[in-house]
Design a protein that fits this description.
This protein is mainly beta. The strands form two sheets. It has an 18-stranded antiparallel β-barrel. A two-stranded antiparallel sheet has the order 6-16. The chain starts with a helix and ends with a strand. It is globular, with a radius of gyration of 23 Å.
């Protein structure tokens, strides 16, 4: 059996921490998904091309350990294990090595003495608000964040994060300098009993020698890129608003504008989304729509929002939103065949969600229907333009076996339309499995 050096060390530290006498409470939370999935034409929409394997079993486990000293101080360690049955180390023997265990979070959170200021330092979630995630920044990141209330309804949050550090002062290699990417962000949340508004502003500076190999790339299109072409700057501003004063009717909206520029390339654009929901006795109905600018014909600049480290998830095929954990990436099944971006840019969508449908105790359903079309000019040389569209339906059935354990079934369908998709076939998938939240 393989020696789990890093994994064993982590487990040993956890055991020691749970048995020490330093007046620290250890709280554990997390989730585990295990499911099988059958599919046809899942990523290529082509029945003439072999899919390789129409069935697979996958699982994802996330565990968070909260080390709580008191109400003013705690540390958090988050681990994630993604596994496809029979692949790599997840074969007979199941000796997962250290590369199969991801350190997702590792941060401390404390309150400055005699103040209302909270400080969070370390590997943590940086989640700008959004209805379907945020196409600008919605990811885990190494960061220092401070937040504080200003009044009863207004707060402030400021943060700094480093995305890439090419060389450090203790690096034995000689660096060229200017090989770092950093971001600062300001958030000003406003919240009342019936209304919330969260405006934010961010600025990113990218050194001329930043190496993006193996890192998150930003705003790469067929006509240019903000990476690898000298110094670059990105700035963005946006906001999320939610109105609940007319309950059971609620309205939520997103609006973001951003610009990115280096010596050879410039892009600027906006993204907007809205969702109107009404809570009936037996279901919640939501009408939604999104719109993001694309590329114009014969333009010296692109009109894409310069997305950074985004998680934007709308449906299983557009963005990758599912009842189970997504397929270990947030791309969506239609991305490879269509060129639909993973961040919601260059696209408009409209759809209906019927959620929390329940007529029998412990059994609930969710049904979604969505239509999407490109916003880029058909002569702009991008993957998914205004002449291309996608239609999708998605059904989720969930049965609560226990309070924290559910059996889940998914059924998905999607079809493409457009000149380049005349020969495409419909795509289908179905899944069945279990979800445990603890």
């Amino acid at each position: 059996m393989k020696l789990l050096k890093n994994s064993s060390l982590i487990l040993l530290l956890l055991l020691l921490a749970s048995s020490n006498s330093f007046a620290t409470d250890l709280k554990v939370r997390g989730s585990l998904d295990v499911y099988g999935m059958w599919s046809a034409n899942l990523n290529d929409f082509d029945s003439d091309s072999a899919d390789g394997d129409n069935y697979t079993t996958t699982q994802r486990m996330r565990v968070y350990f909260d080390y709580v000293a008191n109400e003013n101080l705690k540390a958090v360690l988050g681990l994630e294990i993604d596994t496809v049955w029979g692949v790599g180390d997840a074969d007979w023997g199941t000796d997962l090595n250290e590369n199969d265990i991801e350190i997702k979070h590792a941060y401390m959170k404390f309150k400055l003495p005699e103040t209302a200021i909270d400080v969070t330092a370390g590997l943590q979630p940086i989640l700008l608000p959004g209805i379907f995630g945020n196409p600008m920044f919605f990811d885990d990141a190494p960061a220092l964040v401070a937040s504080s209330p200003i009044t009863d309804v207004l707060g402030v949050t400021v943060g700094y994060t480093r995305g890439i550090d090419g060389t450090t002062s203790f690096d034995s290699t000689s660096g060229e300098g200017g090989d770092d990417m950093d971001m600062v962000v300001l958030v000003l949340p406003v919240k009342t009993d019936n209304f919330s508004l969260t405006p934010y502003f961010g600025y990113v500076w990218i050194g001329e020698n930043v190496d993006f190999t193996g890192h998150q790339k930003l705003s790469t299109t067929a006509r240019g890129s903000l990476t690898g072409n000298g110094e670059a700057d990105v700035w963005y501003m946006g906001g999320n608003a939610k109105l609940t004063m007319f309950s059971p009717f609620t309205l939520e909206m997103d609006l973001i504008y951003g610009e990115g520029e280096n010596d050879d390339y410039e892009t600027k654009g906006f993204y907007a989304a809205t969702a109107a929901s009404y809570n009936f006795d037996t279901l919640t109905a939501t009408l939604f729509g999104t719109y993001a600018t694309g590329a114009d014909e014969d333009s010296d600049e692109d009109n894409f929002l310069p997305a950074l480290a985004q998680t934007w998830m709308l449906t299983p095929y557009i963005g990758g939103a599912r009842a189970f954990s997504t397929g270990f990436s947030n791309k969506g099944y239609a991305t490879g065949a269509t060129g639909i971006g993973i961040d919601g840019t260059g696209l408009w969508t409209v759809g209906l969600i019927l959620d929390k449908i329940s007529f029998i105790d412990s059994l609930s359903h969710k049904f979604m229907i969505a239509y999407g079309q490109g916003t880029s000019d058909e002569e702009a040389n991008v993957g998914f333009d205004e002449e291309n569209s996608i239609f999708e339906m998605y059904l989720v059935n969930k049965y609560a076996i226990y309070e924290n354990l559910s059996a889940i079934n998914e059924i998905g369908y999607a079809s493409l339309d457009g000149d380049e998709f005349d020969d495409s076939d419909c795509s289908y998938f179905a899944s069945l499995g279990f979800q445990y939240k603890f």
